[in-house]
Every structure is written in C-alpha cells, then in structure tokens.
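Objective 1b of the project was to move from sequence-level analysis to a structural picture of ligand recognition. The entry below was assembled by the postdoctoral researcher (A.K.) and checked by the PI before modelling. It contains the amino acid sequence of the target and the SMILES of the bound compound, zinc ion.
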Amino acid sequence: MGERVSLGAAGQRLGVSGGDIRRAGYAKVTAGRLEAWEHEPPAWLRKARARKRRPGPRRVEVSCCVCGTVREVRPSLVQDCTHLVCGPCSSGKRPKVPSRPGMILVRTFDVAGYFDGYVHRIATAGERASVHRAAALARAAFLNAAGEPES
Ligand SMILES: [Zn+2]
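Corresponding predicted holo structure:
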C-alpha cells in the first residue's frame, strides 16, 4: 500500500533515472517501496547508480547522414552539429536536409576526425544579408551572360 510516486520523482530520490526503474520492471512505485529501496538498494539499483558514476570520456555513436556510416566519437565534438557527413560523402555532396526558408547550412570541417559537421539553423540577420547579396550577384552575372550574344 502507500502513496504512488512517479517514476521520475522516484528516480530523482534514488539518484537514477525513471527509465532505470522502468527497465527494472516497475511501472509504478509506491512511497513504501521507495523507502525500502533507499534502505536496501536492490541489485538493479546499485548497477544503475554505478553506471551513472562511471568516469571517463563517454562516446556516442554518430552516423553519416548520407551513407549511414557509423563511428564512435566524443559527444563534446559533435554536440553543436545537427548533421554529420563522412569524409568520402562530403567530397562534393551536401547532406540532404530539410530546407526551410531562412534556414542555412553551416559546414565545419573535421569536427570528429572522420566527419564534417553541419549545423542546420535559422540564418542570422547578417548572414541573410550576405546570402541576398550573393544571390543578387549571381542574378546579375546571369543577366549579363544572357545579354551578351546580342550586344
Ligand atoms: Zn557517408
């Protein structure tokens, strides 16, 4: 019996995540059970706590968004990127990312050794102006070229 405690709140009190509790097979937690766990941590709880404390650089799996090649990298290297493209794929190709008005793709070379990183984000005002300038220049060049045969 006893008061129900949400998995998230229970996890917070135990120093683990709510997912850890769910994975241990509990869909709900009562205050009484929580107290018992705090008193005498079961094996899954000790393991989950140890996992959280494990030192050393964490590695995350990232994949090339063109060909899907997977590599393990340090998360800090790629945390700013929304898309990664591997070396072989990035020669000449741009990642296929959803394009929306005002969005630009910023490329960073060699973010994690094997990958080029891309950040897909809303352009700042300054960037937007330079894109417009570039577009205007391209249009002018095109019009000049088109007009040439007649002149
Ligand atoms: Zn690739």
